[in-house]
Design goal:
heterodimer, A: alpha/beta, FAD/NAD(P)-binding domain, six-stranded antiparallel sheet, five-stranded parallel sheet, 15 helices, 19 strands, globular, B: mainly alpha, two-stranded antiparallel ribbon, 7 helices
């Protein structure tokens, strides 16, 4: 049996999609099992993104009666998504949020997805693993936190998910060296520039790792290199749970309930156990009973839901006896540096995720900062590129003139491991959303180590672009990704959940999304979020310790 | 600012974005072509706000009504977003929510214009308009009518650029072909063109290079 057959035997999603050019199996959705609110199902999952979908699929396969409620739509790539930047605004979570602190982090298109598939609908597609050192930064580097989980314990789940997405890339020499199931994609202009500059400087750079099929996979077709990965893949080439885990979950009796906003987790004040979730759909308030609840709303909505689920037993918010909910929320510093070439790069003509280097990922004892950064191609489309140009102070005719030079630019992005800090957290604002619930207030401030990393990443990106022949470079300061906010820890005084994702406070309540990560490394988090959720699923179904 | 010679909009001679619309998928084509039709009527801004905002957007996006009809109806595009409450999903703690922030900052801009020239922003000379908004940008994170100027500037330019660079007219100006589904690209790589792309007529005339 080839490895590919092995994937199909445990996750048939790619084969359950249509092979006639349409992107959605409507029959599978029409025939989907539907539970009644009164049914006490085995597990209700809040949020159908990277973490929630993997858990849903695994548990459905194991015969659990399981439903995932998602606040957003059940997307159909054919009719709901467009090959256009401005027309993709509805892919983002745009309910109001307040951002504060000395370095506030913009949300929306930057890091927050909406609907079935979650943020992986609009993520670029990079799926690197974390390095073994990420799981023990406190011990190794004296910063951040140690996970209550080691890299070798997660490795089998990384391998499973890499096959299920599947991931394409060169053999990966960094961290725990490993190969990928699909060969690396050919690169476009931006990737060429990166590889050329890095080669001149003796910096190792590699093609990948991206969760974009290279060749046919089940009924998912080959990538057409149209460059709109961040607008939702209309081709079904780029992996998101909508096509990698949800179809198999439905085929095994799971329910996905879209347009259902969970407003509160109910807990029995006598037993301290979760009873189910209150949710709103079609303007009506409802309640789904469940034997177990898993929250997978990502790093802003998960803490917000816990805080909005305060009760007499948990007056400061569910699972918040030790004031841990919402804390240690992390974003990666993501400066983007662009270089101008007389030749036409036309960076929009290929997936934005092409080439990356993790040569600067680990702590370099020669530097005055801890931990490190990775560098990747990013390839902004015109509206996003205008942000880069406007950030240089240009407006009016100067902006137009600068923008007319778009085809000559190449753009790289850094991902810097900004450190987890307790004061970087979600709390509830006074402002209410359309459901009458307090919105999240996310306060974020950098530390000196963070600023040093961002400077270092910028400097390396400038060097690479100059080495490739750029005559001018510009940089914009940004953030990318979210993790933390309900982190796993050894005990309840240092985190919200244990090494399996089970909350310390409520024995039948789990968190299975990026919120549980205690550190973030310099890696895009999607693969790790899925791997951790797959491990939680294994714990629930097979009782691993 | 470089004034009115507008050399940048002739870098890709003959490049026709809309001429390729027959190759776009139906859903995308509908969304994009709607932007080239008659602009929606103004629903969110009051009349006074509308005049002020229109002048502001023209300045920020380098459009000049003296040239004739505006190529990209930025005012109407932003108005539609605000009327639908379509924000970016966040606001700074030291700013009101976007709709209110737009109303407030347009009022402040008019107040500045009255103070400097005794007339609303839309009615003062273009050089004064430029000076008035340049003053806001120059404040950086300092206070402007009780708001951090940098956050005001960021909101103004973000809404203006998002609208302007959503329009096929703007894509044509920068050599970007727009939608690419279901066709995709076959010739990615430095210096490579698709048959429907047009190369830059002045590739070495970097408009921003020192001394260019």
């Amino acid at each position: 049996m080839s490895p590919r057959d092995g994937v199909r035997a445990r996750n048939e999603s790619a084969w359950l999609l249509p092979n006639d050019g349409a992107r959605t199996n409507h029959r599978l959705r029409l025939d989907m099992r539907r539970f009644a609110d009164e049914d006490e199902i085995d597990l209700v999952i809040v949020g159908c993104g990277a973490g929630g979908s993997v858990l849903l699929q695994r548990l459905a396969r194991a015969g659990w009666r399981v439903a995932a409620l998602d606040a957003g739509p059940f997307w159909d790539p054919d009719t709901d998504w467009v090959s256009d930047e401005a027309g993709s605004h509805h892919l983002y979570w745009t309910d109001p949020r307040v951002i504060a602190g000395s370095d506030p982090v913009p949300m929306g298109s930057n890091n927050s997805g909406r609907g079935v598939g979650g943020s992986m609908v609009h993520y670029a597609g990079y799926t690197p693993r974390f390095h073994p050192s990420d799981f023990a930064t406190n011990t190794v580097d004296g910063v951040g936190a140690d996970w209550p989980l080691s890299y070798p314990e997660l490795r089998p789940y990384y391998e499973q998910i890499e096959q299920e997405l599947p991931v394409a890339g060169e053999r990966w020499p960094w961290g725990d060296p490993h190969g990928y199931p699909h060969r690396p994609h050919p690169v476009g202009g931006n990737g060429e520039v990166f590889l050329r500059g890095a080669d001149k400087l003796g910096i190792m750079a590699k093609v990948g790792p991206v969760a974009i099929v290279n060749g046919r996979f089940g009924n998912r077709p080959h990538c057409i290199y149209r460059g709109f990965c961040l607008q939702g893949c209309k081709v079904n080439a780029k992996a998101s749970p909508l096509i990698t885990h949800v179809p198999d979950a439905l085929a095994h009796g799971a329910e996905v309930r879209p347009d259902a906003m969970v407003t509160q987790i109910a807990v029995d004040s006598r037993t301290g156990r979760a009873l189910g979730v209150h949710y709103v759909t079609g303007g009506r308030e409802r309640f789904q009973r469940a034997r177990m609840v898993a929250v997978a709303g990502y790093s802003i909505e998960t803490p917000r839901l816990l805080l909005n689920s305060a009760s007499s037993r948990f007056p400061e918010g569910l699972c918040n006896d030790f004031d841990q909910v919402g804390r240690y929320l992390m974003v990666q510093g993501a400066p983007q540096t662009a270089g101008r070439f007389d030749a036409e790069v036309r960076m929009y003509k290929a997936p934005p995720p092409e080439v990356s280097t993790e040569a600067f990922y680990e702590t370099d004892p020669a530097k005055d900062y801890k931990r490190g950064f990775s560098i990747q191609t990013v390839s902004p489309l015109p509206i996003t590129w205008a942000e880069h140009v406007a950030a240089q102070g240009h407006w009016g005719p100067a902006l137009r003139e600068y923008m007319s030079d778009y085809v000559h630019w190449s753009c790289l992005g850094g991902l810097c491991e900004f450190l987890a800090r307790p004061e970087n957290r979600v709390t509830l604002a006074d402002e209410k959303d359309s459901y009458g619930l307090p919105v999240a207030r996310f306060s974020y401030s950098q530390c000196d180590n963070d600023r040093a990393l961002a400077r270092a990443a910028q400097s390396v990106m400038e060097d690479i672009l100059h080495a490739a022949g750029a005559d001018e470079v510009i940089t914009i300061q940004r953030y990318a990704h979210l993790v933390g906010g309900a982190r796993m820890a050894a005990d309840e005084q240092h985190g919200v959940v244990d090494r399996h994702g089970r909350s310390f406070a409520v024995p039948n309540l789990y968190v299975t999304d990026g919120s549980v990560l205690p550190t973030q490394g310099s890696a895009n988090p999607a693969l790790t979020i899925m791997a951790v959720a797959a491990r939680t699923a294994q714990h629930l179904t097979a009782g691993i310790s | 600012m470089s004034g009115g010679d507008r050399g940048w909009n002739s870098r890709f001679p003959g490049f026709d974005v809309l001429g390729q619309a027959r190759h776009w998928d139906e859903v995308t084509a509908e969304a994009v072509l709607a932007r080239t039709g008659p602009p929606a009527s103004v629903k969110f801004f009051t009349e006074a706000e509308e005049s002020c905002a229109r002048a502001l957007f023209n300045l920020l996006t380098g459009q000049d009504e003296r040239d004739g009809e505006l190529a990209v109806p930025v005012l109407e595009m932003v108005d539609s977003r605000l009327a639908a409450g379509e924000t970016d999903g966040w606001r700074y703690a030291d700013m009101p929510e976007d709709g209110q922030a737009w109303r407030d900052t347009l009022t402040h801009l008019d107040a500045d214009a009255y103070q400097r020239c005794g007339a609303p922003f839309a009615d003062v000379a273009r050089t004064d308009q430029v000076a008035l908004i340049q003053a806001v940008q120059d404040l950086k994170s300092a206070d402007w009518h009780g708001l951090p100027a940098a956050h005001v500037w960021s909101m103004w330019t973000r809404y203006a650029c998002t609208a302007f660079y959503a329009h096929p007219f703007a894509w044509a100006e920068i050599g970007f072909p727009g939608p690419a589904y279901p066709r995709g690209y076959k010739n990615a790589g430095v210096g490579k063109l698709e048959p429907f792309e047009v190369g830059d007529a002045h590739p070495s005339e970097d408009p921003v290079r020192e001394g260019a």
